Fold this sequence. Notes:
alpha+beta; membrane; 3 helices; Emp24-like; four-stranded antiparallel sheet; Jelly Rolls
Amino acid sequence: MLYICRTFLVIICILEVNSIMFHLNPNSQKCLKEELRKEELILGEFEVSSVPGQKVDYVVRDSKQDILAQNKDITKGKFTFVTETQDVYEICFKSTVPPHQRGVPHEVSLVTKRDAEARRYETMGEANKLKPMEVELKKLEELSGSIVQDFEQMREREEAMRDTNESTNNRVLYLSLFSMCCLLGLSVWQVLYLRKFFKSRKLIE
Length: 205
């Protein structure tokens, strides 16, 4: 049973953990954005290659430019925050090189964990005197709930997109009918005008 729980945890954790590695050019900034749910716990771990004389700063912001976490001259560390609203959040890494120094790209690695994966279940288990099986089941329960919320959010987005598509299709249909009526009216007017013109020239009776 414990093996099955751990297997499910491994599968679910893949969906809850994001990892990325990239190169940050000298005197440049690179930002990563993601849309997050309301009241979602986020834990991030980063590591930046050290280059003498160069500095790298990071900052975490929401779409309103409110700062949730930041630090300067980083090499390795963690950050954590809880989202207040459903919004698009970004983390930016900025490289600074002195004018007299030739810059070298930094190698940046970032791992982010969401909700249940970001919680410390070992500490929770010790505090509540839970058995290892109970801790695993608790973690599995919260991870499953998080995935259910993700699917619910995807369903809401799908419904919103479907409503938008239907509304757009209706507008296109009405525009097409209006265009056809205009073309038909213009064609009738052209026929009547040409007929009147030819009659005035006595080209037709």
